């Protein structure tokens, strides 16, 4: 029988990967359905029913249709939570708050600084064949350094971002950072030893190792 | 038990987002005013609370939180989980829809509104030029967004469902300033969006917080944040 859970979009897409990492962490069975961008399938009536903004990922659980990767991720982690896989910590006010804080930090501080480097060095050259805009890269790296200082200070205090437990906040850092590590700027993380060690622990998680193998680089 | 403290300047949309949630939750709190023009957010005592040097910051006993939507979630999780679609009467589906529309607010709505506020309100007072191309592009994005909201609100009273949630409330603070610009009329083409906005404005929590948010962020009266 086909799995009830469906994710729409390719595994190599960063925001699709954001959802897949949650599914892999809880060990839920799912079907990955590709979206044909060349045929503009993301703007087709069928896909717009799943995601009215015509974007990926979209997600289906029976009759429930969801979009926005972080919302999908939370639904999965909430529904399939076990004592071994409690990555939102919603049973504890203080822990849940720290998960939310560092999830927001990824969305509003870390990602805006890091993702332009990924776009300029990996994604745009692969999709558009454009040369890297070095000014954008340099400005982003400067912002990223400032952000990594904060992450470094935090990871002095605890093994993971929300506390001494891995959480949704850590998982959210995975997809774009994975591609950043394929750019010439990966050695930047060596300047932040606690961040580097935290990244290596993240990459050692079975769910992440499995997903990383699937995320074929764009070229 | 010490009341909750919120640090920042009340004209900030991010600060106001948190204040509306505190008002809706019916919680006692104290605003600790800070000065943006005085650089209070860059001082060591504030960096100790928020190493990113931003506001708002919420202190509740030993807990110090930042990022306005994380603070909003904490307030409702503690006092009124129904605003997150959680707790008694909540469900996996409802909480998922609340999360979806809060993400839409954060990643679609706010990025479309911010440039309009900057170019149409703030730049006037800081001596910067208004870039009409940026404004037009942002208003265009917002119109497309409101098309989606209009369709959504045909099926439910509020964005996440038939109950008011943090997703609706989160829109108030930046919309308040957008609706003070010459582009307010944009919502007239979306009657359900307009009605939804007016329902938000009618809430006592929103009225109370809005009283501290002059349409020019305080620049005109010399009360620069």
Topology overview:
The complex is a heterodimer of chains A (219) and B (225).
Chain A: E1 5-8, H1 14-26, E2 30-33, H2 45-50, E3 58-61, E4 64-67, H3 69-79, H4 93-127, H5 134-157, H6 168-180, H7 193-203, H8 206-214
Helix pairs in contact in A: 1-3, 1-6, 1-8, 4-5, 4-6, 5-7
Chain B: E1 4-8, H1 13-25, E2 29-33, H2 44-47, E3 57-60, E4 63-66, H3 68-79, H4 92-126, H5 132-152, H6 166-178, H7 191-201, H8 204-210
Parallel strand pairs in B: 1-2
Antiparallel strand pairs in B: 1-3, 3-4
Helix pairs in contact in B: 1-3, 1-6, 1-8, 4-5, 4-6
Explain this structure.
The complex is a heterodimer of chains A (219) and B (225). With 219 residues, chain A is an alpha+beta fold. Chain A has helices at residues 14-26, 45-50, 69-79, 93-127, 134-157, 168-180, 193-203, 206-214, and strands at 5-8, 30-33, 58-61, 64-67. Chain A is built from 8 helices and 4 strands. In chain A, strand 3 and strand 4 (64-67) form a beta hairpin. In chain A, 42% of the residues are buried. The mean pLDDT of chain A is 95. Chain B has 225 residues and is of the alpha+beta class. Chain B folds into 2 domains: 4-79, Glutaredoxin; 92-204, Glutathione S-transferase Yfyf (Class Pi), Chain A, domain 2, CATH 1.20.1050. Helix content of chain B is 52%, strand content 8%. In chain B, strands 2-1-3-4 form a 4-stranded mixed β-sheet, with helices on one face. In chain B, strand 1, helix 1 (13-25) and strand 2 (29-33) form a beta-alpha-beta unit. The radius of gyration of chain B is 17 Å and the shape is globular. Chains A and B meet through strand 4, helix 3, helix 4 and helix 5 of A and strand 4, helix 3, helix 4 and helix 5 of B. Chain A: Belongs to the GST superfamily. Phi family.
């Amino acid at each position: 029988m086909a799995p009830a859970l469906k994710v729409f979009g390719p595994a190599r897409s960063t925001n699709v990967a954001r959802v897949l990492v949650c599914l892999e962490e809880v060990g839920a069975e799912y079907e990955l359905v590709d979206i044909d961008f060349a045929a503009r399938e993301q703007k087709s009536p069928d896909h717009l029913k799943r995601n009215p903004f015509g974007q990926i990922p979209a997600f289906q659980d029976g009759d429930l249709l969801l979009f926005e990767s972080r919302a999908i991720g939370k639904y999965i982690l909430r529904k399939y939570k076990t004592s071994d896989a409690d990555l939102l910590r919603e049973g504890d006010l203080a822990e849940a708050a720290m998960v939310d804080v560092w999830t927001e930090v990824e969305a509003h501080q870390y990602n805006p600084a890091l993702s332009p480097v990924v776009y300029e060095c990996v994604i745009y050259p692969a999709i558009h064949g454009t040369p890297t805009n070095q000014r954008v890269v340099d400005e982003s790296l400067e912002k990223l350094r400032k952000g990594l200082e904060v992450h470094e200070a935090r990871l002095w205090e605890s093994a993971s971002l929300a506390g001494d437990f891995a959480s949704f906040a850590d998982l959210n850092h995975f997809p774009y950072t994975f591609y950043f590590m394929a750019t010439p700027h990966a050695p930047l993380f060596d300047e932040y030893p606690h961040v580097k060690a935290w990244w290596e622990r993240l990459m050692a998680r079975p769910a992440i190792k499995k997903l990383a193998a699937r995320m074929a680089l764009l070229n | 038990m010490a009341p909750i403290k919120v640090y920042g300047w009340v004209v900030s949309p991010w600060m106001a987002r948190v204040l509306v949630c505190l008002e809706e939750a019916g919680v006692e709190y104290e605003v600790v005013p800070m000065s943006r023009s005085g650089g209070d957010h860059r001082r060591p005592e504030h960096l100790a609370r928020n190493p990113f040097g931003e506001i708002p910051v919420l202190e509740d006993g030993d807990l110090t939180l930042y990022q306005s939507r994380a603070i909003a979630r904490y307030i409702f999780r503690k006092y009124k989980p129904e605003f997150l679609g959680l707790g008694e009467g909540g469900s996996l589906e409802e909480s998922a829809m609340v999360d979806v529309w809060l993400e839409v607010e954060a990643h679609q709505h706010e990025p479309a509104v911010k440039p309009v506020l900057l170019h149409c309100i703030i730049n006037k007072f800081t001596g910067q030029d208004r870039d009409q191309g940026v404004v037009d592009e942002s208003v265009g994005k917002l119109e497309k967004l409101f098309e989606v909201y209009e369709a959504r609100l045909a099926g439910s009273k509020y964005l996440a469902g038939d109950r008011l949630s943090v997703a609706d409330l989160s829109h108030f603070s930046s919309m308040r300033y957008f609706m003070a610009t010459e582009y307010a009329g944009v919502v007239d083409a979306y009657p359900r969006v307009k009605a939804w906005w007016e329902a938000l404005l009618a809430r006592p929590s929103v009225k109370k917080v809005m009283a501290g948010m002059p349409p020019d962020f305080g620049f005109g009266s010399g009360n620069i944040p």
